[in-house]
């Protein structure tokens, strides 16, 4: 078996030292590069080796990242951090798994998904990947050639999976990046990354996008309308298979896919469903219900605009908290069945509202429908409030609209990205245009 260098712990040793310390004889081995580097620094090679050996398991020999630094940020710096600090990584992954482990009864249970028909707004699959030999966080030290190779590999992987266009963050305006964030195509961290880029599916659907140089080097996501986690998974998986043929993806037999945050180890997958939960909001039961699902099922719950946001438009995104020691099927099954349970609570809450305030609720729905279909001018706030009522009318079957899709699409007319699309006109003109778009869209689906 080849002896490895005691300094870098990676290259084959070609030189040896024997040092007498007290009553013991210590042996050290070095590769030629580390041996010459130590001498050029004026340090006896064995002193550098002793220092490195003393830090074994507490320091990455590839990037010099330490266990102490990890304790402050809970992020690893490069794939080799997991190999050189394996015990620390193992403890972190196991601890996170135990803290967020979902109830076993959610796994492997097939449930009736009809209840999700009108309450599931969208389904998303995200896969976190990194490239072997590259630090997780992008920097100018990567070199233009390596960054270009990453972008080229990501674009080539799209062939056969989806037609894409590449946009570099450095070339996009602040307003354009804000619009992409609201469309859930990119994240705020990516928008703020000068080395970031995104490969976006061509066309109007924007189902597929691949964020490059975010927290991880590659974050693939597929977003489908309504409840379609499996459809999103299949599309993202096809791209991921191509990606692994184009680039050397960082993987470990014990930890699975290596990611900056240990919470993403394993499959590197996040599955999420955006739910419309207006009745739970109306009855004041939403916070208790969501907290119950956080504790009971180990799920993450976010608002419409992601981490740290509230439930704008009565929309809440639920997703798995762990990707380690669980399979992709278990993740999908867990999120799906938790969503079904939440929708049952929503249905019960709506029944309660109807029992106690049916006349007021139906009247409010019809008033909102009348406003949204006939108003000459609509502010963003007016549209946001009326959309909630109209969507409730669809759920109750009292309006001549039979699909949530056009109503979900109109949410973007409330967002600031609509201001970008209508740049150069006054607020009054924008409200008139917003109302015209809403009337036309709803007329098409009657």
Beta-strand content: 15-25%
Mean pLDDT metric: 87
Tally of contiguous helical segments? 16
**Helix and strand sequence:** EEHHHHHEHEHHEEEHEEEHHEEHHHHH
Strand order, biggest sheet?
4-5-6-7-3-10-12-11
Give the % helix.
Answer: 40-55%
Overall 3D shape: elongated
Helix/strand-derived category reads: alpha+beta
Cα separation of the termini: 74 Å
The residue ranges in which pLDDT falls below 50 over 5 or more consecutive positions are 103-110
* Largest sheet entry: 8 strands, antiparallel
Radius of gyration: 27 Å
* Number of DSSP strand runs: 12
Task: Tell me what the structure shows.
The structure is a single chain. This protein is α+β, with helices and mostly antiparallel strands. Among the domains are: 1-54, Wheat Germ Agglutinin (Isolectin 2), domain 1 (2-Layer Sandwich); 375-444, no CATH class. 45% of the residues lie in helices and 16% in strands. The chain contains 16 helices and 12 strands. The protein has helices spanning 32-40, 45-54, 67-73, 79-84, 86-100, 144-157, 174-182, 188-191, 229-246, 278-282, 286-297, 328-374, 380-396, 405-409, 417-421, 427-444; strands at 15-21, 24-30, 120-129, 164-168, 197-201, 208-212, 218-225, 251-252, 256-257, 269-276, 299-303, 315-320. The strands form 3 sheets. The chain has an 8-stranded antiparallel beta sheet, with helices on one face. A two-stranded antiparallel ribbon has the order 1-2. Strands 8-9 form a two-stranded antiparallel ribbon. Strand 8 (251-252) and strand 9 (256-257) form a beta hairpin. Helix 6 (144-157) crosses helix 9 (229-246) and helix 12 (328-374) crosses helix 13. The longest helix has 47 residues, at 328-374. The radius of gyration is 27 Å and the shape is elongated. 43% of the residues are buried.
């Amino acid at each position: 078996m080849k002896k490895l260098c005691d300094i870098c712990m990676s290259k084959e040793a070609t030189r040896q030292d024997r040092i007498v310390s007290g009553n013991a004889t210590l042996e050290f081995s070095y590769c030629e590069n580390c041996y010459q580097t130590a001498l050029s620094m004026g340090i006896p090679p064995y002193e550098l080796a002793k220092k490195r050996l003393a830090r074994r398991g507490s320091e990455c020999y590839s990037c010099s990242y330490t266990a102490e630094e990890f304790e402050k940020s809970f992020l690893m710096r490069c794939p080799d951090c997991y190999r050189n600090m394996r015990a620390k990584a193992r403890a972190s992954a196991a601890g996170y798994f135990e803290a967020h482990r979902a109830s076993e009864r959610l796994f492997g249970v097939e449930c009736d998904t009809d209840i999700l028909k009108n309450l599931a707004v969208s389904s998303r699959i995200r896969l976190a990947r990194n490239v072997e030999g590259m630090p997780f966080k992008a920097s100018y030290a990567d070199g233009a050639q390596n960054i270009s190779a990453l972008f080229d590999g990501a674009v080539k992987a799209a062939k056969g999976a989806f037609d894409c266009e590449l946009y570099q963050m450095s070339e996009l305006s602040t307003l354009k990046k804000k619009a992409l964030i609201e469309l859930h195509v990119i994240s705020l961290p990516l928008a703020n990354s000068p080395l970031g880029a995104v490969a976006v599916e061509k066309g109007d659907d924007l189902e597929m996008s691949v964020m490059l140089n975010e927290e991880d080097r590659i974050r693939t996501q597929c977003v489908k309308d309504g409840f379609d986690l499996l459809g999103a998974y299949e599309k993202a998986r096809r791209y991921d298979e191509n990606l692994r043929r184009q680039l050397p993806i960082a993987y470990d037999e014990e930890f699975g896919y290596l990611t900056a945050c240990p919470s993403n180890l394993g499959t590197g997958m996040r599955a999420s469903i955006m739910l419309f939960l207006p009745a739970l909001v109306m009855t004041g039961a939403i916070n208790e219900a969501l907290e119950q699902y956080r504790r009971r099922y180990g799920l993450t719950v976010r608002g419409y605009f992601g981490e740290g946001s509230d439930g704008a438009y009565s929309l809440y995104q639920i997703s798995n908290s762990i990707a380690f020691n669980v399979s992709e099927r278990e993740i999908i099954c867990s999120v799906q069945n938790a969503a079904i349970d939440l929708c049952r609570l929503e249905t019960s809450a709506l029944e309660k509202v109807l029992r106690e305030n049916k006349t007021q609720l139906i009247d409010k729905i019809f008033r909102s429908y009348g406003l949204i279909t006939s108003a000459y001018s609509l502010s963003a706030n007016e549209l946001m409030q009326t959309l909630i009522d109209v969507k409730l009318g669809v759920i109750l079957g009292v309006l001549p609209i039979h699909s949530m899709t056009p109503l979900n699409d109109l949410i973007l007319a409330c967002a600031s990205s609509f201001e970008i699309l209508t740049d150069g006109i006054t607020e009054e003109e924008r409200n008139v245009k917003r109302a015209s778009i809403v009337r036309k869209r709803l007329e098409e689906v009657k």
